[in-house]
Amino acid sequence: MISAESLALFVVACVALAATPGPNVALIVGTSLKHGRRAGILTATGVNVGLIAQLALVAAGLAYVVETFSRNFDLVRYAGAAYLVWLAVLQWRGAGAGREAPMPSARAAFGRGLAVAFANPKTLLFHAAFLPQFITDRADPVPQIALLAAVFAAIALVGDVLWAVVADKARAALAGRFTRIADRVSAGILVGGAALLLAAGRR
Asked: Where in the cell does this protein reside (predicted)?
């Protein structure tokens, strides 16, 4: 079993990671600024379903899947960056529409989050290298990795929902004549997420 010290250190590391903005957070914040809390939380849900799938692959020890992502690292992240830029263009063109802007369906918001989660291959490679560092019993690693994956997923979901809520509060504060500013900030955040994907390296 994992020692209490290792688990506590892992929780601290997970909280720090959840508080660090990346492409997933950029999508969640950008969506919440444009469309509100519900759309942001649905997007966060999609992101975290993708995250759970990645963690499950790592916990199951499917090294060949990780290797496939590694071989196609650049292709996947370029596609993800292009997708974020496309979403940014849509939001920039709709700047100022405010609360009359068409709300994405639940399926669309969820799908965006899921797509961007899988468009960042570095997260899968990171999990494959990160989780095993906290294992204390090398003789029986699978249950420990599964536990660590579950803890990571829970903290990530809470963190992403908090990002959505905070962004929605900012949207409310910028309502009215500042709506266009909020929409363009939202588009800028999405472009920033694309830049983070493009800047991502294998190390």
From this structure: Cell membrane
